[in-house]
From TrEMBL:
This is ABC transporter ATP-binding protein. The keyword ATP-binding applies. InterPro entries: AAA+_ATPase (IPR003593), ABC_transporter-like_ATP-bd (IPR003439), ABC_transporter-like_CS (IPR017871), ABC_transporter_ATP-bind (IPR050166), P-loop_NTPase (IPR027417). It comes from the Bacteria. Keywords: ATP-binding, Nucleotide-binding, Transport. GO terms for molecular function: ATP binding; ATP hydrolysis activity.
Length: 272
């Protein structure tokens, strides 16, 4: 699965330890995954299990202790604007307005404002922040800030977008609105997305493919397709069944924790 030629971003036997004791300090081990054009993959794991570390490795923010990360088939050597990243807590520049924050990626590349003004304006409209374009981050709600952060990453047309618990600081209502917003953007742009979350419902709802990373060391312990229409409705029986199954997988750190779960019963739904 890792060496898919058309993969935009992939990793092969990826591992990370933060100390000298390999056994005790290994956070991630032997992770293989690949992201292709149009993919939306969600990574589900316990808090502290290594999800952010995985995303930082995939984004070139951290160097692997073992294995490798490839971007368009070449070894990833560090951060690149072609890999967009949205963090858990909005990381906007407080002294910049909404439009300045969104245009920042062009500015650091040395582009003149007149060359990117329209692209920024279009993006502001897409994320429905037209009335707030001159406002500063402290004048925005949490949901608006996260929309600015997503817009800022997308406006430079990254080849892939990595999202680290982007909605976890928001209340349920806002979280649901932004989930729908992110899905709409993904459908419109086909930008491959890799989103990590500890929220089971979010992981099923958003992705086309769901990967569970187990605890210490973090390894892939389960993988399911969530592309079928049933998984877009949070009250569908198949959705609820998968949700319960994944909750036991997380709790017991084992793919076979839920003895009542029989994937073949839902196989037809998963093959879409
Ligand atoms: N730079 C670092 N140095 C040492 N240990 C680190 C470093 N970064 C992360 N860790 C450790 O790696 C483990 C995984 O951290 P990580 O932030 O990846 O988990 P997470 O699954 O994203 O957690 P959460 O859901 O709570 O954000 C933790 O035990 C953390 O203490």
């Amino acid at each position: 699965m890792s060496q898919v030629p058309s993969a935009v971003l992939s990793c092969h036997n990826l591992g990370k330890s933060f100390g000298r004791d390999r056994r005790r300090d290994t956070v991630l081990a032997d992770i293989n995954l690949s992201l292709q054009q149009g993919d939306f993959v969600t990574i589900l794991g316990q808090s502290g299990g290594g999800k952010s570390t995985l995303l930082k490795l995939m984004g070139g923010f951290l160097a692997p202790s073992s294995g490798s990360v490839s971007f368009h088939g070449q070894p990833l050597k560090g951060i690149t604007p072609k890999i967009g990243m949205v963090f858990q807590e909005h990381s906007l520049y407080p002294w910049m307005t909404v439009e300045q924050n969104i245009g920042f990626g062009f500015k650091v590349r040395g582009e003149l404002p007149q060359s990117y003004r329209n692209r920024v304006q279009n993006m502001i409209e897409q994320v429905e922040l037209d009335d707030a374009r001159k406002r500063y981050p402290h004048q925005l709600s949490g949901g608006m800030k996260q929309r600015v952060a997503i817009a800022r990453s997308l406006v430079v047309k990254p080849d892939v977008l990595l999202l680290d618990e982007p909605f976890s600081a928001l209340d349920v209502q806002l979280r649901r609105q932004l989930q729908a917003f992110l899905l709409a953007i993904w459908r419109e742009t086909s930008t491959p997305m890799l989103l990590v979350t500890h929220n089971v419902e979010e992981a099923i709802l958003l992705g086309q493919r769901l990967i569970v990373v187990g605890d210490r060391p973090g390894q892939i312990i389960a993988e399911v397709s969530t592309a079928a229409a049933e998984f877009r409705g949070r009250y569908h029986p198949k959705f609820l069944k998968l949700q319960r199954h994944l909750e036991s997988v997380l709790e017991y750190n084992s793919a076979t924790a839920d003895l009542e779960y029989h994937p073949e019963e839902t196989a037809s739904a998963w093959q879409n």
